[in-house]
Amino acid sequence: MSRKVRYITEGNTVKKIYEFPEQQRIEKEKIRSNPHRRTYRNNETAPRMSLKMTLILAASVLISVTSCINYLNTQSEITEIKSNISSLEKSIETLATRNDSIEYELDSIDVEYIMKVATEELGMVMVQENQIVTYDSTRNEYMEQYSDVPEK
User: Fold this and answer.
1) 3 contacts 23 by C-beta, under 8 angstroms
2) Rounded Cα distance, 50 and 110, in Å
3) SS3 80
4) Which of 8, 96, 118, 132 is deepest in the core (most CB within 10 A)?
5) pLDDT value at 14 more than 60
6) At residue 142, what are phi and psi to the nearest 5 degrees?
7) Residue 1 above 50 pLDDT?
8) pLDDT tens by residue, 86-133
9) Which residues, listed in sequence order, are joined to residue 19 by a DSSP beta bridge?
10) With 60 as the cut, is the pLDDT of residue 16 above it?
11) How far apart, in Å, are the Cα atoms of 10 and each of 16, 19, 33?
């Protein structure tokens, strides 16, 4: 397997200028025509896949792909629920802030001033004991009044 190569010496360098392509082609064909013995042995002893084994492999691949798709869908739902939770938490914060401001407004209302305006300017009077009627209800539900309340 010697190659025929021509070299040119020029000063202190040697340059390869030409290889014979025919010789290279012949060597490659020899290698292709005589494959190694181990290749044949491997092909003979290699196990063949039966139809049953192929079906089992296909089913396991299908199950794996289905599991991956289900996993991705579940992750997507979890992400959506988390974003929904965070938006609900933000709305709770907003409502709590609003509730606090309304509560502050209610605490700042002067009840004495309201009583004074109601009695003096609007002519309202305070309720008297004989005007209050109480009921003992056996049921705790909504009550409709079909007639007037009896007097004592």
Assistant:
1) yes
2) 92
3) helix
4) 118
5) no
6) -70, 135
7) no
8) 999 999 999 999 999 999 988 888 888 888 899 999 988 888 888 888
9) 5
10) no
11) 11, 18, 40
Alpha carbon 89 to its chain centroid, in Å, reads 18
Which of 57, 41, 59 lies closest to 49, judged by CA? 57
| CA distance linking residue 105 with residue 143, whole number of Å | 33
Residue 83 burial by Cβ neighbours in a 10 Å radius (0-12, 13-18, 19+):
exposed
Whole-number pLDDT of residue 42: 63
Q: How far apart are CA 16 and CA 4, in angstroms?
A: 11
Contact 28/37 with Cβ under 8 angstroms? no
pLDDT at residue 19, as a whole number: 58
Residue bearing tokens 């003979």: 44
**CB of 6 within 8 A of CB of 18?**
yes
141, with CB counted inside 10 A (0-12, 13-18, 19+), is: exposed
Q: Three-class SS of residue 87?
A: helix
> What pLDDT, in 10s, does the model give residues 44-81?
666 677 888 899 999 999 999 999 999 999 999 999 99
**pTM, full prediction:** 0.41
Fill in the amino acid letter for 29.
E
CA 147 to chain centroid = 60
